[in-house]
Task: inverse folding
């Protein structure tokens, strides 16, 4: 297996993409931890939800079946919507997905403060927003990445580490090493987000989603100022 060819983007653009991917992974980890603690459901890790769906169908646990099916469907709808936005050439605001996800989180936070929002509606909203966010950064250079869940990230990390250790070619080893570092940082970002959520969930209360929403808005401004290519 030959190493992936270098992307046409400049090293500076690749570095900006890496930073953005890590930040989005942080938000995804934060949101996934929120889903587990508040609603006992993953809002970005669909592998876990699919496993729960399968085992619940056999045991006829209809509550889990409905919950898992809802969040998976909404996540897919979010990916579909985010991809359509990315391909819609009439859209001039390239950071629109950031504003949409941040807006959803902020509106939900305000709504949940004044009204009691059901768990099913909550996970549907969160799953949809994470689906959109999943489409923002899909690669760092020519390395395919996924900022919303870590199974694929860990799989690619281990493979690139193995390829690095088995290759005798200097250029190949550099590519595999860089890929492994990118993926490790991405995983670290996800874990860090989950850790931060457990720290702030008590003091922030109903406003815990304002933090990731603010990060997304800051990212949108940063992208505009740095002229990063999405």
Result:
């Amino acid at each position: 297996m030959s190493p992936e060819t270098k992307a046409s983007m400049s090293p500076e653009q690749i570095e900006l993409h890496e930073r953005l991917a890590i930040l989005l992974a942080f938000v995804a980890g934060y949101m996934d931890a929120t889903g587990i603690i508040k609603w006992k459901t993953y809002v970005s890790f669909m592998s876990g939800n699919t496993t729960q769906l399968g085992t619940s169908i056999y045991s006829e646990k209809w509550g889990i079946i409905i919950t898992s099916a809802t969040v998976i469907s909404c996540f897919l709808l979010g990916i579909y919507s985010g991809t359509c936005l990315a391909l819609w050439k009439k859209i001039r605001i390239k950071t629109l997905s950031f504003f949409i996800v941040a807006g959803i989180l902020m509106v939900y936070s305000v709504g949940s403060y004044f009204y009691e929002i059901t768990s099913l509606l909550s996970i549907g909203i969160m799953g949809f927003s994470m689906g959109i966010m999943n489409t923002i950064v899909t690669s760092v250079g020519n390395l395919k990445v996924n900022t919303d869940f870590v199974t694929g990230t860990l799989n690619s990390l281990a493979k690139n580490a193995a390829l690095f250790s088995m290759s005798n070619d200097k250029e190949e080893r550099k590519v595999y090493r860089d890929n492994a570092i990118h993926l490790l940082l991405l995983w670290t970002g996800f874990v860090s987000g989950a850790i931060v959520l457990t720290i702030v969930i008590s003091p922030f209360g109903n406003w815990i989603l304002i933090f990731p929403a603010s990060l997304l808005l800051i990212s949108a401004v940063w992208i505009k100022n740095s002229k990063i290519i999405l």
